[in-house]
Amino acid sequence: MRNSLTRATLWSAAATERAALADDLAGLHEAQWAQQSLCGRWVVEEVVAHLTAAASIGALRWFGSVLGARFDFDLHNDRRLAEYRGATPAETLEWFQQVVTSTTSAPGPTAAWLGEVVVHAQDIRRPLGFVRTPAVETVTEVARFYARRDFTVAGRSTIEGLRLEATDGPFTAGAGPMVSGTTLALTMAMAGRGAYCDDLTGPGVLTLRDRCTT
């Protein structure tokens, strides 16, 4: 099933999730900003700076940055992250707050950029012990996109040969050994976050966990 929400609705959902994350970040102390996230080698502050960069750089700047990095996407991301990381965590947060309602993005489907916000927000929250579940309708759109294609994450490859069924919404995908859980946990697992496999059940979980990257 293709994404059913309009582009405007997807951007509105992204703004809602950015605003919720900004609220969560407002009370962090210095050690929490330096907490390791679920996103590879990045700490919390770096993930926030990455989200700010993603909402600040349009197609032309993105292409220029990628070309300048000779298509080394890790280098591209690190350069843009450094650009949008403030001198202090407070400044990093201030810059993020300024892009809460942004509809600027790199080329690609809007569902992918909504997914960036949803996934990276959980990359931050889970290690900090914060709990927020976005609207099921919002996460379902991201889950459907991830299951359909490999783009910002290798979602389709990660679930190949598996059957996913959400316990809290309409999302289903694939065929094979069952993996069930909340739409958010399934989405995070498709994004390679192995920690969320702890929240899933079914005979396909071990296979899915083996395919997760972090």
Explained architecture:
There is one protein chain. Strands 2-1-3 form a 3-stranded mixed β-sheet. Helix 3 (44-54) crosses helix 5 (73-83), helix 7 (110-128) crosses helix 8 and helix 8 runs parallel beside helix 10 (183-190). By secondary structure, the protein is mostly helical. It has 11 helices and 3 strands, in the order H-H-H-H-H-H-H-H-H-E-E-E-H-H. The mean pLDDT is 94. It is globular and about 50 Å long. The relative contact order is 0.14. It has helices at 7-25, 30-33, 44-54, 59-68, 73-83, 89-97, 110-128, 136-148, 155-158, 183-190, 205-211; strands spanning 163-166, 172-174, 178-181. The protein has 2 domains: 7-128, no CATH class; 138-211, Nonspecific Lipid-transfer Protein, Chain A, CATH 3.30.1050.
What topology does this entry show?
Blueprint: H1 7-25, H2 30-33, H3 44-54, H4 59-68, H5 73-83, H6 89-97, H7 110-128, H8 136-148, H9 155-158, E1 163-166, E2 172-174, E3 178-181, H10 183-190, H11 205-211
Parallel strand pairs: 1-3
Antiparallel strand pairs: 1-2
Helix pairs in contact: 1-7, 3-5, 3-6, 3-7, 7-8, 8-10
Q: Mean of the pLDDT scores? A: 94
Helix proportion = 40-55%
Please list the strands of the largest sheet in the order they lie side by side: 2-1-3
Number of helices: 11
Q: How many domains make up the 3D coordinates? A: 2
Radius of gyration: 17 Å
Distance between the termini: 28 Å
Main sheet attributes: strand count, strand direction, barrel closure? 3 strands, mixed
Low-confidence stretches: none
SSE arrangement, N to C: HHHHHHHHHEEEHH
Shape: globular
Structural class: mainly alpha
Topology, number of strands: 3
Strand content: 5-15%
